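ARCHIVE CARD
Drawer: 12
Card no.: 0347
Subject: one protein chain, sequence and derived structure
Cross-reference: see card 0346
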Amino acid sequence: MAIRVFVTGWGIISALGRGVEANLAALKSGRTGIAHSQHLNTLHKHELVTGEVKASNAELAEWAGISPSAGLSRTALMGMLAAKEAAQSAGLSRQELGATGLISGTSVGGMDVSEQHYGALLKGEIQNYAKAFAGHDCGSSTELIADGLGITSHLSTISTACSSSANAIMQAGRLIRAGAAQSILAGGTDALAVFTLNGFNSLKILDPHWCRPFDVNRMGLNLGEGAAYLLLESEEAVEKRNAKVLAELIGWGNTNDAYHQTASSPEGKGAYLAMKKALEVAGNLNLKIDYVNAHGTGTANNDLSESMALQAMFGAGIPDYSSTKSYTGHTLGAAGGIEAVFSVLAINHHLKYPNLNLEQPMEVLATAPLQQLVAGKEVNTVLSNSFGFGGNCTSLLFTR
């Protein structure tokens, strides 16, 4: 019999606020965290809105109990805060936390710090290159989070663009189900950077206003930042600690549509296969899904691709679905982790979130996304989608 994988802790920081309760309150009230940037120093800060965390690096460091002079990246600081909340919410002792694994996803790692040194590097003002850029790469972000929490067990970093933290959760589930681990903190973190904002702007896929996923007049995405982690434990570990269970991770699927470096298959082939595989891992292709947390970025290509995939998967019976990126912006490598927390919140609080800013649903859609909060109706099973550049598609399946 397969080892079951349970969610026993959660932690998050996003444009909606710091902590699970702050994010829940914003989701229930329909309050978006997307606004003009206050901390990102870019020429476009007054032209483009972002899902920026409302705190300076100094404030993040203070919350994390670290000196701002340590020079940690925003990515590492947010990751520490979210991972620490997940561990604390699960009631892990210091000893138990030390033996817990950490799998963290990120898209750009400490790029927010690296780019600050880049100009000086080009001018020949940096003598010690290794020292100037130490701790900025993706893997170092994970190591810094582990050091901050005292984790000395399994460490792994995954960087598959926008599916990074969803893949981290999937990999943690696979390790636990295989009996190779008992407990793992899994999720991801990514900070806004001039590099990413200018990069996406050059692709002409940023909406200067609030994004409108699945709207016929959608103009693109809003970039965001944040971090989120789930504590995943085996049934044996849960029983040993007498831990409170928030949800069960019963399925996952990862595929690649091999279509284009920065675009998804117009037919949604990869997304469809990821959802199908998640149901196959759960052992029931006909499992009733109560809510789908869609990837839904607000770009012409992505929303069309995911719409086709949903219709191929569910036919005329598409479950209630929406994109929560209209709340947080697209947080890149952190998106899958943040939306996994939102999915587990949906199960625990009987919620289905509205697709904010939707005015005219895409004509191709057989069923329109939710436009109003649905509360009080039982939500037992949630499918969460995360699709990254290069066609890396991941779906996670949570149940009560």
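Annotation on reverse: The chain has a mean pLDDT of 95. The longest helix spans residues 74-89.
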